[in-house]
Amino acid sequence: MSTQDELKKAAAAAAIEFTMSRVCKSSIIGIGTGSTANFFIDLLAECHHNFLGTVASSHISEDRLRTNGIKVLDPNDISELRVYVDGADEINSDLELIKGGGGALTREKIICAMAQEFLCIADNSKCVKSLGKFPLPVEVIPIARNKVARELIRLGANPKWRREFITDNGNEIIDAHGLWPIESPKALEAEINQISGVVTNGIFAKNSPNTVLISSPNQITTHVRQENISKLLL
Ligand code: 5RP
């Protein structure tokens, strides 16, 4: 029987192979946040001579990269990343995600949007039919917390303030419970982002991954976004 950590590590190892097949000496890699991303960072240390450097989606990942001897660059100093690698809290069959369990969703979204390719890695416990059982993280400007919470209630959520948690951007997180099943992740992502006071929410549907590697005991399955397949067929 594989533990969840063993499965996360297996997904991270597969992500190293995927990433190394795409980078050259001048490439920059985007690095996510969380325990799966941590396994990726630790394995990346062994091949840091194959690429130029990284940009990190959180202070925690930045520290771990540096401790592993991997160069970390400021996103403002670069225009494009070859690939962004990160975990997820939930993944549906359209490869739409909920992210932000670790509270790094805004920086994750920014860095992901700078990448030519987004690779998501996860163990099979993250695969769901519909998104929303995992409470949806929403990063808010502190003075807008209660106002945003009221608007989330209007959208059918049961908002809970993640007390004593401040994001790397100095903001707060509301976890929106009770949204399952999210029927249209793209529409809900856009609607919540329109609420004034919201920085961003943890639905990654507009910027969904190009590829997802899922680890199960004894196997890794590769899922490619439909749109990529249509491009390949053209
Ligand atoms: C952090 C995230 C993580 O990718 C997500 O929470 C998954 O974490 P883990 O790899 O520890 O299961 O979005 O903000």
Portion of residues within helices: 25-40%
How are helices and strands ordered from N to C?
A: HEHEHEEEHEEHEEHEEEEH
Give me the secondary-structure category. alpha/beta
Low-confidence stretches: none
Strand content: 25-35%
Describe the fold and architecture.
Helix 1 crosses helix 2. The mean pLDDT is 96. With 234 residues, the chain is an alpha/beta fold. The protein has helices spanning 4-20, 35-44, 59-67, 105-113, 145-154, 185-193, 226-233, and strands spanning 28-31, 53-56, 81-86, 90-91, 97-98, 115-123, 136-140, 158-161, 172-177, 198-201, 203-204, 211-216, 219-224. Helices cover 31% and strands 26% of the residues. The longest helix has 17 residues, at 4-20. The strands form three sheets. It has a six-stranded mixed beta sheet. Strands 8-9-7-10 form a four-stranded antiparallel beta sheet. Strands 4-5-11 form a three-stranded antiparallel beta sheet, covered by helices on one side. The radius of gyration is 17 Å and the shape is globular. It has seven helices and 13 strands. Bound molecules: ribulose-5-phosphate. Residues 32-36, 86-89, 99-105, 108 line the site of ribulose-5-phosphate.
Task: Please tag this protein with its features.
234 residues, alpha/beta, six-stranded mixed sheet, four-stranded antiparallel sheet, 7 helices, 31% helix, globular, binds ribulose-5-phosphate
